[in-house]
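Notes from hallway chat w/ T.B., transcribed later so I don't forget. T.B. wanted the structure written out for a chain they're using in a teaching module, and asked if we could keep both sequence and structure tokens in one place. Agreed to drop them here.
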Amino acid sequence: MLDVRRLRLLRELARRGTIAAVAEALAFSPSAVSQQLSVLEREAGLPLLERTGRRVRLTPAAQNLVRHADAVLERLEQADADLAEARSGLAGALRIGAFPTATRAIVPAALVDLARRHPGLEPMVRETDPAAVAHALRAGDLDVALVHEYDFVPAPPEPGLATRPLYTEAMYLAEPAATAGVRARDSVPAPHPGPGQDPARAAEAAAQAQDAVLRAHQDAPWITATPGTLCHAMTVRACQAAGFAPRIRHQVDEFATVLALVAAGQGVAVVPQLGVTGPADPAVSLTRLRMERRTKIAFRSGAAAHPAVAAFAASLRAVVPSGPAAPPAGT
């Protein structure tokens, strides 16, 4: 009989590529991971791994076994959800991952709602970039997380994970108001066609208008998030789609700090709606773009019906904004 814990190690090896990375992610020693995978090979009765330098490659049999492991682990999540449903009352730790703007703008109100409905739950929030969520969920470090994707940075499917949509927000170009004053600016047309208008032409016109807004700042210094984050990739790819590479001066992950730098005349930036909530800063001008950021609730496949995960999702939906709002007045 194959051991499910060893199957989990094999699945993580398929995702991460090296035994050292699996060991680091799951808090094992590399020798312990190698030993357990060797036992799994003996259980399977045929080779599962081929070494290529410092990396290991899964044999076709191992790749097929990983697909079975995904299904087995999903069924175990469903079984855990059924058992939790049978218990009386929700209690215990709920490990939540969230990116910074969601941690500030959405999560606190959701936790208040969750505490009112399920006082026995103990939510534990960890600020986590969406790029790291998949590994954290599969490793069991998180139970549920908020992730996001942008028009220019779609999220690839993650084996073993499932998502549900939560919130779509508008995106804005932020620039110093002093430089915006030399140009009259209107919002970029929305990509939705009017009556009798061809949808494809409307979308193309909106994309061209957005490109023009971005190209107007191709010689300006840019403020982006740090490399390796989705927010950094979003700005770089949006500029590339407009025909230029941004000249990056500052790399900052917190949007409040980004806007402070914009107000100080240090550059321009692309920011999401949740990043510009609060009192308007007269030193910052915001121009609506046709881009959007979509926030989703992520969890392990099979865990959607888990009462604790479902309860947190319900609290999120109870407090989340109903849709993209206008920028703060006066910007």
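Follow-up for T.B.: The beta strands are 49-52, 55-58, 92-98, 121-127, 144-150, 161-176, 221-224, 247-251, 269-272, 284-300. Might be a good example for the class.
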